[in-house]
Amino acid sequence: VDLKECLQSAEFISSSNENFKILEDGSVYTTSAVSLSAEKKTFTILLKDIQEHVQKKIHVSLVEEEKKKTRHARDTVLKRTKRRWGPIPSVMIENSLGPFPLQIQQVQSDTAQNYTIYYSASGPGIDQDPKGLFYIERETGNIFATRAVDREQYPSFQIICFATTPDGYSPEVPLVHTIRIEDDNDNAPYFTQDLFEFSVPENSKPGVVVGKVTAEDRDEPYTLHTTLKYRIVSQNPPVTPAFSLHGDTGVIAVLLPQLDRELVSSYTLLVEVRDMAGQPFGLCTTGTAVIRIEDTNDNAPCFKQTQYETRVEENRVNVEILRVSVVDLDEPGSPGSGAVYEIIRGNDDRSFEITTDKNTNEGILCVVKGLDYESAKQRILVIAVNNEAPYMLAPHSQQLSQSTSSVTVHILDVDEGPVFKPCHLRLDVKECEEVGTSIGRYLAEDPETGNSEGICYRIPPGQCNWISIDEKSGEVRTIKVLDRDLGEMRQGQCNITVLAIDRNGKTGTGTIQVVIQPGNKNYPRITKTDYIMCRDRKPICLTAQDGDESPYSTPFVYRITDRSLASMWKITRHNDNSVYLSPKGDTPFGIYNIPVSVIDNGGKVGENLVKVNLCDCVTPTECDSGPRGYSNGNVTLGVWAILAMILGSLLLLLILITICGCCGSGVMHRHVTDDCANHNLIISNTEAPGEEVM
To answer: Gene3D superfamilies attached here (predicted)?
Structure first.
């Protein structure tokens, strides 16, 4: 094949099929016997220019030559196989000591019996880097090495040997000869890291994997030269061996049943790796592995003191009064040593609070609510401590009880100002009470003496101006009518700060909450008082409203105050604030002004006048009430009522006249003559079916 035409600058030539070899001149040779089947055999020649990063392929197809003679299957095929002129691959020991030049092989051609043969060679180690490492004698075909070779740098060489006659004829095909460099154990194994660092929790069980150390060897793989063994040379501190090292894998595991960080926080292991499967004559290297023991909360905190005493002035708030400290053997700064304090007794009123100083791990006890010397001269607290992390019981150890400490707090007496009791007083005032009404007293007392002598009172300006307080007696009175329907009083309450001043000028403050209680100040009123009632006489629903709140509003009581109208109309209860008004019996049509009184739940009476037009109509729109009506028991008839009465009288008179006429004529039969039968009806007083007439 023409390699230069495909890629002239090819530096690497290879075949996809190991049964075929391609030389630099493009010659293709078989490297073993090839059997061709009926199908084509194909392979690919790969050309690479490494510097230019160019790659090209040549596809080669092989076909079987046509047979010139046909044989029967039973015929025996005799074929003479030509002996190859090249020897088996050569072997050279790595780092050979010579003497040099050192003969490593000889190549000879059978054609030397008939021709004068000259031998030559080319390839890596001869005319390519490393140049001059090998050479071949021209007349004998002996191959020599000129110096030692490092297998790790050059594991093998492939050279091409040529056999030619003096006139340049090549009776033999070029021979590809391999020179393999046999490995010498000249490289000691080495660890992949200068320092291996691992960690394992304390109290870990034996067998727990800590980590793995790894090493490599540059010698030939899968030989004794690269079969490595690991072992622990020494341990620091030199106490009972705490770890084991697997000889083949390099895995480090826990060996000691109990690792205690508080005793030994870290271990340093000197480890060795040796080739030749650990045999004494193998090469070795040592490395270092540091194993840090991680802390677990296996030590409970304990107070340095079981009793503390401190002092604080009464009424002081948000002030630090004491610091307590604990001893914890766990790792400082870890959750296993971080202290969490709590007050477990003596702080029912939550006057104290304890927190943790993250920098010092101390407990800071503070007063958050003022203490009263007069109530208690000292307080005794019990403080307990835990860790941030849950406690983990170490092997072969017993459960520890929680550490506690008592704190006695002495309260110091100071001269205080007057104190109102209670500090917040609620006074209820009925709505619309008269100005100057006394609603209560608000007194303060000296905490030291327990009395109110020499204390005066006043209300600072700028507050709701509802009440006043007597300077000496502390009596509280209203200074205006309190009405929930007016301005600032709509909320119904106001908080007023009161000052108490003793003889020394010290002051105390208290708060009066004035609450306006709803009163019965409004009369109940019927919302609608003008109605039309038609001939169906459907009851009217009367509804009243009262601006007051419970209990001065509903339920309402309705009454008709006029006796004569009460005999004609009746009231029926509907619900707490509504009733039905309906006529009794045959109350005549007309307009009625009915006085109705409504009484609320507080007994306040509201008078109302309900106007009802009792009209002879089907719908209220048909009626016009007009200016007339029924009032105070007298009925005034309208125009339509008078006309109805007149027409009714005339109709009644006509009926009477007709009846009288019929009775005077007696019983008679009047018949129509035949000649008039076609023109008149028969008049008869006999009740019977009539005859068929025209």
So the answer is: Cadherins (2.60.40.60)
Burial category of 584 from C-beta neighbours within 10 Å (exposed 0-12, middle 13-18, buried 19 and up)? exposed
Q: Which is it for strands 404-412 and 307-313: parallel, antiparallel or unpaired?
A: parallel
Cβ neighbours for 146, distance < 8 A, ≥ 6 positions apart: 100, 101, 132, 133, 134, 135
Judge contact between 161 and 123, C-beta under 8 A: no
3-state secondary structure at position 16 = coil
Q: Rounded CA gap, 72 and 66, in Å? A: 16
Handedness of CA 244, 245, 246, 251 (dihedral sign): positive
Sign of the CA dihedral with 301 first, then 304, 305, and 308 last? negative
Strand bridging mode 195-201 / 209-212: unpaired
Measured between alpha carbons, how far is 87 from 139 in angstroms, rounded to an integer? 17
Number of Cβ within a 10 Å radius of residue 26: 15
Spatial separation of the C-alpha atoms in residues 504 and 447, rounded to whole Å: 14
- pLDDT averaged over 10-residue windows placed end to end, the chain, 694 residues: 80 82 80 67 85 84 63 38 63 91 90 88 92 93 94 92 89 90 93 95 92 95 94 93 94 90 92 95 96 89 94 91 92 89 94 94 94 89 92 70 92 85 88 85 85 89 88 89 77 88 88 84 87 90 86 88 89 91 89 92 88 90 57 46 80 85 46 40 56 67
Position 252, amino acid: I
- Own/partner pairs, 457-463, CB within 8 angstroms, 24+ separation: 457/498, 457/499, 457/500, 457/501, 458/498, 458/499, 458/501, 459/496, 459/497, 459/498, 459/499, 460/497, 460/499, 463/494, 463/496, 463/497
* Tokens matching residue 2: 């023409």
Q: Is the pTM of this model over 0.85?
A: no
Q: How far is CA 667 from each of CA 146, 532, 670, 689, rounded to the nearest angstrom?
A: 181, 54, 10, 18
User: CA-based angle 692:693:694, to the nearest 5?
Assistant: 135
Q: Which pair of structure tokens corresponds to residue 109?
A: 């051609």
Q: What angle do CA 688, 690, 693 make, to 5 degrees?
A: 170
